[in-house]
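agent> Task received from the user: take the single chain below, predict its 3D structure, and emit structure tokens. No templates, no multimer pairing.
agent> Plan: (1) validate residues, (2) run structure prediction, (3) serialize to tokens, (4) report one or two observations.
agent> Step 1 OK, no nonstandard residues flagged.
tool_call: predict_structure(input=
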Amino acid sequence: MGRRSALEGVRLPQGKEPHRGLWLDKFLRSARREDTEAKRVLVREAAGVPEPGEYRAFFGRYRKALEALGAELRQARTLSRLAVGLGGEGVLETALTLQRAYGVPYIPGSALKGLASRYAHLYLEGEAWRRDLARFQRGEAQAGLFGTTEEQGLVVFWDALPLPGKWKLHPDILNPHHPDYYGSGEAPPADWDSPVPVPFLSVTGTFLLALSPAPGVSPEEAGPWLRAAWRILAWALREEGVGAKTSSGYGRMALEEPVSQGEKPPAPGPSPVLQDLLTRARALSYKEVPRFLAAQAEAILGLSAEEAEALRRALEERGFLRNLADLKRWRKEHPGLEGVLAKLGLLA
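)
tool_result: status=success, residues=348
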């Protein structure tokens, strides 16, 4: 008797907690490519496997270990379905990244780090955030935060696990209508083409994200980089999304406020608007300063006096805003800049 024949009589045990990953790998009843019904049944069964009872205790140990390392913790809530590891190996044409021991979905730290690095390269101002992966070159800020092939970055991105009882798997489906056109490209798309459903798993819920200083890096040295990493992750998760099918709206997440650790009150920090400005200012070159001030005029004018002073100090620490002749020239070149400079206390 072949393996597939032996599986015909096997059904998902009810009232128990089979390992989701094992079930996905071993219990596909038909290996025929065109048998989409067998794949659909397998995906539906895997989605219905309950969370292991031992997972809650494991999650608690994982969280305590992160706190012992000095990691900063935040929760991120999905705004749409999430598909991580869709192109991974598996018996289906699709896959989902599952934690090996407990079979729960998770977001690898490497995926979060790659997302943040890409977002910084594409959208942050300043050459310091640029990268050229083909030549293994990174700007100063890219190298400092994310590292290079020769040196580690200042921040560690940890795997994001789902909060116990606050996540759910969903049977999902890809439905390409023109497989020959998308495959070989030799046949044009036509109205008489038949769609080929491809079942896969997606997830919604709340995940625990963690960032910590890299080994050998003091909390004081890593502090500004941690704040920058959180801001970039918040933008990237909401605007770009993590995982697969982001162009179809998958993977969008909202990063929530810091998780309080025990009874220790969270340390007061700059407002989100000021954090955004400080993150952008950290990667500026001197010639980019007037354009930055003009582009961010509305945000700067809305700062409190203390926040404006903090932004001014951050720029001055980088050697900016000290040349009075340049300030005078910038005012002439950018008519709206006079109010910004006055807000920063640079006009008598």
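agent> Step 4: summary for the user.
The longest strand covers residues 198-213.
agent> Done.
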